[in-house]
Amino acid sequence: MPESIHETGAADRRAPTPQTALVAGGSRGLGLLIAAELALRGYRVQVCGRDPRTLQQARDQLARERLSIGTTVCDVSDSAAVAAWVRAASDPSAPITVAIHVAGIIQVGPIESVTPAMFDECIDIMTKGPAYLALAVLPGMRARGFGRYGIVSSVGGVIGVPHLVPYSTAKFGAAGLGQALRAELAGTGVTATTILPPPMRTGSHVHAQYSGNRSAEYAWFAPGASIPGVSLDGRTAARRAVDGTLRGAPIVGLSPVTQLLMRAHGLAPSTVVRALGVLGRVLPGGTGRPKAGHDVRDERTNPLVDALTTAGDAMGARTNEQHRVEGDPAP
What we know:
Blueprint: E1 20-24, H1 29-40, E2 44-49, H2 52-64, E3 69-73, H3 79-89, E4 96-101, E5 107-108, H4 116-144, E6 147-152, H5 165-184, E7 190-196, E8 200-201, E9 209-210, H6 214-224, E10 232-233, H7 234-246, E11 251-253, H8 256-267, H9 269-282, E12 291-292, H10 293-299, H11 303-308, H12 310-318
Parallel strand pairs: 1-2, 1-4, 2-3, 4-6, 5-9, 6-7, 7-11, 8-10
Antiparallel strand pairs: 9-12
Helix pairs in contact: 1-7, 3-4, 4-5, 6-10, 8-9
């Protein structure tokens, strides 16, 4: 890798005793960056993902930086598989004190191109997934009287975003789960943190699924997830997500933009929804079936869009986002 996967000069903040941290969806993108951040802090990190090749590449990438992770093939939408992963990762000499659910997918397109299966996939991974992980890890944490559980939702999980309807639906569920768990766990020594990222430079735009007028959808979404100043650097997002989870914060907005949008929505929700309606009216229509971003990009080269996604593509090269994985829609 040309650059470190974690921020240059990041502090080596070691866990005081051997502890295990789980990262669901830790084989690429933000999940891989969070796994690296936890490993840098001295945790025994175990990650899961759906694709064996991507997991192997994640392990190799971090090994080149002298960071070690364990990997397991596991689909977070399978409750039995999640429970089995947690059991296998349990080690009395290094108890599971941290678990962060990051696994997710992004579907970009107008509602007329959305199918029931697309809603099912989003909800299975991003709402049911963190619920299944909570059911598996919380009993042990509560028995020990200490634990930190983080759920990566999104700013799209508190504000509904046009052309991201299944994604927002699932992320609203994840945010509700995190906040309800936080209230229920009060006084137990275990905390639940809802993490709300803005658009981030992690390289995820090439694995997002685009439907409708696919090239037009890619042309607005991919630059928004890549341009510095519009999107948040993935390594910064990972550090802030881990910091917030470890200190037991109820809700962590990862950027000033996220915090501003949350406050605006809290003060004037109808105004924010109407403003987003203006955006919805200018976004493209269409009914094309979903395709992964790398296929959409390869179908029709757009030099301007390619230039605007340079920073996102560079980060994707460091976060395992540049190749097809199991679960991507077929070209």
